[in-house]
Amino acid sequence: MSVWKFLSQILLIAVCVLLAYVVCSHVKYSNVTDIISVLQNISAIVFAISGVWIGYLYPNAIAGLMKNEKIDFFASKNEAKKVEGMILIIIISAFVLVGIALFYLMVILLKGSEFYRENYFIIKLSGLSFILYMIFMQIRCVFLMIRKNISFINKLHRFLNEKELNSKL
Description:
By secondary structure, this protein is mainly alpha-helical. The protein has helices spanning 3-23, 29-57, 59-67, 77-110, 114-118, 120-168.
């Protein structure tokens, strides 16, 4: 990971903690569970769509991996970068889904305990910061997917225009 990416993640975490601190006093658990439900649905959809894209666009890569054969998966480094980007989207969405499960597990384990009562503000701040971070990460995935789809559409139109132009010549 480059220094810039690492620093941007640290900055994002700091923003999430600051934002959570500002709104912590008036956020209720029911509001958090509502947004977690939306986050879970978005993560699952992005996860599935990205997987379908990889399976559809790169069937040779999938077939080669399943058969454990040495195959030239991608026509170019550019193709490999595209798949890498889609896999990054899948990984982040999977981490968000796991994060949601861990959040609910922590609620089950901590809520009502003496530790929870003694550290209520810190636990609430941490939980809210964590949820905000996951929301921002999932939003990033959605925008990455939109960008990749726009790029795909542009290449498709360019290909169709070139084909039409060649047929007229």
